[in-house]
Amino acid sequence: MELIPTQKRTKNMIKKFSISSIFAQLLLLIFVFVWIAPSFGLFISSLRDKDVLAISGWWTSFTTTDVNEIYRTEGMESQVEENGYFIIKGKVFEEGSGKLISRFGVTSKNIDEFEVGEIAVFKDGSEISIDKTGNYFWRSKEKFTKKKGKRIFISASSPPSFTLDNYKEVLLREGLGQAFINTFAVAIPSTLIPLIICSFFAYSLTWMRFYGRDLLLATVIAALVVPLQMSLIPILSIYNDIGNLFGVAAKSFPGIWMAHTGFGLASTTFLLWNFLKSLPNEMMEAARVDGATHYDTFIKIVVPLSIPAFASIFILQFLWVWNDLLVGLVFLDKHPSEIILTAKLKELLGSRGENWEILTTGAFISMSVPLLIFFSLQRYFIRGLVAGSVKG
């Protein structure tokens, strides 16, 4: 008699568990899609031709796109005389473009007036025809006297095509390559220095007993709520005074290393302290009984066990420094040898705001390193975040 209610309860629990599990998985898939779709679109846009990118979305990059473009013929230097006509021949498309012309025009008022193969007449009486692959034939009874050719308006279909020219232009011509190196010069020391300091600091707050330890820990926690914007100008003033005193530049790489270390030390210390307090107390007592000093305990026991926490802190601090703009603008000049990636992108947004191929390529270069760091260390990242949630 008791078996039937038990079976019903079991079935109900399984049903509830299945529904909640399916809902959680669907919600996770939605979050993944919302995050991946823009990133994938940014990557595809960075590989597209600038003319196609300006008129169509990235989702059309795998299909044929209809485009309207303007080209100019060759000038008088290319003319030859044949059978009483002066003739200029040429091709509007580059080799291998794959574009096919459907219609063309010779005036901006009617850009698709003529079909491929028809003869169009300019105001000066010269005639031009063009085939679907872009080869044109322009002839006139009078000699061509202008260095510039005539404009041709093209309606064509453009097949899917991708190029690395955007990356070459951004890295070599726009100065983003040097900014990329400068950002590494800022991010690596600004991540490792606070990580080293907070490791010793968090260990002392967790396993060493000294006067004022609780007050020091409370100070660290209180520092988490202080906005860094409040301290930027006072710290910069101190840097300027020190620079004037010793005759060195206040805005420099060592200066921004110290700034990022100071701004990130409270959060990194708190995260690592939260992890270290979850380590078994019996292990530390056994090490003390065996005669190990605090330094030996830290190096031989705590550090190997804290690799997931170190990886998590490294990722968080690195991402924060890499994506920072405000601190970089305050503590570094905009000189090419010092400007960081986010500041350079801000400049491009103002000077090349209409060039989507430049902005999308620069943005993807900026996000590629954080993505690489995160996916390389993600297993440690998850373990480090949840390790301090359970005692022992």
Provide structural commentary.
With 392 residues, the protein is α+β, with helices and mostly antiparallel strands. The chain has three domains: 15-62, no CATH class; 64-159, no CATH class; 167-387, MetI-like (MetI-like fold, Orthogonal Bundle). Helix content is 58%, strand content 12%. The protein is built from 13 helices and nine strands. It has helices spanning 3-46, 50-53, 165-173, 176-207, 213-223, 229-246, 253-276, 281-289, 294-305, 307-322, 326-331, 341-351, 356-387, and strands at residues 65-72, 80-82, 85-91, 100-105, 114-115, 119-121, 127-130, 135-140, 151-158. The strands form two sheets. It has a five-stranded antiparallel beta sheet with strand order 2-3-8-7-6, with no helix packed on it. The chain has a four-stranded antiparallel beta sheet with strand order 1-9-4-5, with no helix packed on it. A hairpin with a 4-residue loop joins strand 7 and strand 8 (135-140). Helix 3 crosses helix 13 (356-387) and helix 5 crosses helix 7 (253-276). The radius of gyration is 33 Å and the shape is elongated. Mean pLDDT is 83; it is low at 388-392.
In short:
This protein has 392 residues and is of the alpha+beta class. The chain has helices at 3-46, 50-53, 165-173, 176-207, 213-223, 229-246, 253-276, 281-289, 294-305, 307-322, 326-331, 341-351, 356-387, and strands spanning 65-72, 80-82, 85-91, 100-105, 114-115, 119-121, 127-130, 135-140, 151-158. Helix 12 (341-351) runs antiparallel to helix 13.
